[in-house]
Amino acid sequence: MNEENQTLVQRKEKADSLAELGVKLYINSFKPANSIEELLPRGTDLQAQEAEPGGSIYSVAGRVMAMRKFGKAAFCTITDSSGQIQVYVKLDILGDRIFETFKKWDIGDIVGVEGSLFKTKVGELSIQAAKIVMISKSLRPLPDKWHGLTDVETRYRQRYVDLIVTPETRVTFRKRVEIIRLMREYLNGLDFMEVETPMMQPIPGGATAKPFKTHHNALNMDLFLRIAPELYLKRLLVGGFERVFEINRNFRNEGLSTRHNPEFTMLEFYQAYATYTDLITLTEEMISDICQKVNGTMKITYQGTDVDLTPPWTKLTMDEALTQAAGIDPKILADEIKILELAKEKGIKLDDSAGSGKAKTGLFELLVEEKLINPTFITSYPTEVSPLARRNDDDPTVTDRFELFITGRELANGFSELNDPRDQLARFEKQIADRGDDEEIHPELDADYIRALEYGMPSAAGEGIGIDRLVMLLADAPSIRDVILFPHLKPETGLQAEKDEADENSATGAF
After folding, report:
1. pLDDT for 1
2. For 48-99, how does the pLDDT look when each residue is reduced to its tens digit (9 = 90+)?
3. Which one of 413, 423, 440, 462 has the largest count of C-beta atoms within 10 Å of its C-beta?
């Protein structure tokens, strides 16, 4: 039996002994009237060894995070979602039976306390317990408070423990909630309407990615978890909703990395009678405003690198970026044969049908992206790699599209929308014809979307922002798994082994 399972056995034995003494281990009758956070200011004016005047009685509930036991008294520190406070437990107040059973409680137990406030002789605000009850018995010990939950995979896999013992984790996810709230407020303030579109779609569209596939038995049809909500949101533009947004999950059947999780959160929004330049302005204002409100400054540090989100942000065409950051001669960029040769020299894999647009995009991803530390909008993406974006009126080889890069990562993608149904149909057909063995391009054309465009979609611009990556940036998190509460992981092989050992111990009377 390993050390962890031995401790679990001992904790279960202790729980059994407490139950035999009449302690109810899991009650549902204690309702705290106060949060710890609201009690803390009440001790501001108290002196050491002074009780709060009036002797008001408060009730709080929380998890025991530390405990010091003496002969006839004990101190424990409890935390709730708002903060932590010390509790002073005395034998002569609680009585022999309750005090003796309390001394058998453990760090990790969730308890309820009623009592008055005072400061100890060292000046720490505390509750002098007039009543203390067990709300939920912890059968597993918390990680050592000095070392915490140091194994990264365990932090992701047992996020519930990570949240208990790692204050920084709680701060990160509170920040995530605040960022999403501020996004909603910003868009609501511009008269955008929040909507919901299908998570299961008969044809995956709106992005190039390998989808997850399932089957609907009653309809006897295959469905796909959505890779993007784009084509449904644009159907709403056709229907007359002129400003719409959705914050929800997308699913892409791809590998795991510090930047990728198969299930991730996106903000997508669309505005009628707007252009991509309008969305550049909106994005710059929204993200810098959120950063100021969340972090108190627009100058932040991400993994040791200084980043300045103060507007205005840099704006470069893809060709300008390739010249300035990668040193590629503009004459080569203008020559399709030479740019294709350069891409192949750099090891970029291109199929036989690839044109200069795919070559430029590959070179940009290889040579430029990681150099874009401060916010930079890259515009004029090749039409060849932008099947849903509007062609530029002056140069039809590029589109009115941008991507936003910060700390070398793409954070947003937006463009003036293509609303010509015949042009859209031709691009879909070419994309499918050039698909080859590419599983990221769906072989079936979305005819209903073309039909919707044929009814007339207003001129519009749309954008997607990766919320997980934005939270990573503003929370200084190195991995996307640090900002997703329950990220995807490989199966935990040790968990079944632990269960088998526990079952064996139970069968042999170890419990």
Report:
1. 57
2. 999 999 999 999 999 999 999 999 999 999 999 999 999 999 999 999 999 9
3. 462
- Regions of the chain short of the pLDDT cut 70: 1-3, 145-148, 494-511
Confidence at residue 145, expressed as pLDDT on a 0 to 100 scale: 59
CA-to-CA distance for 164 and 32, rounded, in angstroms? 19
User: Quick one: CATH architecture of 3-142?
Assistant: Beta Barrel (2.40)
Instruction: Tokens 């929800």: give the residue.
Output: 248
Which of 421, 405, 425 has its CA nearest to residue 413? Answer: 405
Burial of 22 (0-12, 13-18, 19+ CB in 10 A): exposed
Residue pair 294/474 in contact by the 8 Å Cβ criterion: yes
HEC assignment per residue over 321-350? HHHHHHCCCHHHHCCHHHHHHHHHHCCCCC
Specify the pLDDT at position 502: 46
- DSSP state letters, 416-477: EBP--HHHHHHHHHHHHHT-TT-TTS-SS--HHHHHHHHT---SEEEEEEEHHHHHHHHHT-
User: Using CA atoms, how far apart are residues 400 and 277, in angstroms rounded to an integer?
Assistant: 8
Domain positions in the chain? 3-142, 165-313+374-482
CATH 3.20.20.150 holds for 165-313+374-482: no
Give the CA angle between residues 88, 89, 91 to the nearest 5°. 145
Q: 279 CB contacts (<8 Å, ≥6 apart)?
A: 271, 402, 414, 461, 462, 463
Residue 255 and residue 268: Cα distance in Å, rounded?
23
Residue 491: helix, strand or coil by DSSP?
coil
CA separation for the pair 199, 215 (Å, rounded): 13
CA distances from 217 to 203, 220, 223, 225 (A): 17, 5, 10, 16
Q: Is 473 left (phi over 0), alpha (psi -120 to 50) or beta?
A: alpha
Distance CA 347, CA 16 (A): 65
Maximum alpha-carbon separation in the chain: 91
